[in-house]
Amino acid sequence: MFLDIDQHDYEKDIIPFIRNGIIVDTSVIDIFINGLIEVRFTKKKLEELPEYKSLLSFFDLIKITNRFEKFCITPHILTEVCTHFRNKYNKRQDYKDVVEAVVPVLKVMQEEVVGKDRIFERIDFTKPVIEIGDISIFIVAETFLASGKKVALLAKDRELNRTYENHRDVMVMDYQSIVLNRL
Q1: What is the pLDDT of residues 71-116, one digit of tens each?
Q2: How many CA atoms within 13 Å lie on the side-chain side of 127?
Q3: What is the model's pTM?
Q4: Which of 70, 81, 64 is CA-nearest to residue 109?
Q5: How far apart, in whole angstroms, are the C-alpha atoms of residue 127 and residue 144?
Q6: Which residues contact 124 (CB under 8 A, 6 or more apart)?
Q7: Mean pLDDT across the stretch 35-61?
Q8: CB 84 within 8 A of CB 31
Q9: What's the CA gap between 22 and 113, in Å, rounded?
């Protein structure tokens, strides 16, 4: 089900889904990290970073500001995030300081390990798409659901979101519709 910030009551409707963590995709983490670096190191104001400001407002709304341990990532998502981070920032003179600011955020996030055998089981060989990060998110969501847990998914990826839009035990926090268009 899609999160409806106008209809859902925080205590009754949202907490049961975020209690076990929020599976987050690479692009959302990238937006957060890029905003964090812009504010801390280039001294930009939040008003100059509307996407980052909206993301922080969303974190406030669901009461997870500065609670990065609520985020759930896989090693595959972490690899994608680190690759984007390195490619974007490694030429900076203050790269060491930037790394020191970002690593604590990533370090406290929950990690769900997804083995390669499970990834290869998910590849559709009739129309092969090998997006390891996305596949790992599907597997983590399925693992939560198989254990009878509700879970939240914060993603910018329409395919991920559509997959779970009608699932009663997954709260889809669609980045585009909630973070960008509502806040």
Answers
A1: 999 898 999 999 999 999 999 999 999 999 999 999 999 888 888 8
A2: 0
A3: 0.86
A4: 70
A5: 27
A6: none
A7: 90
A8: no
A9: 15
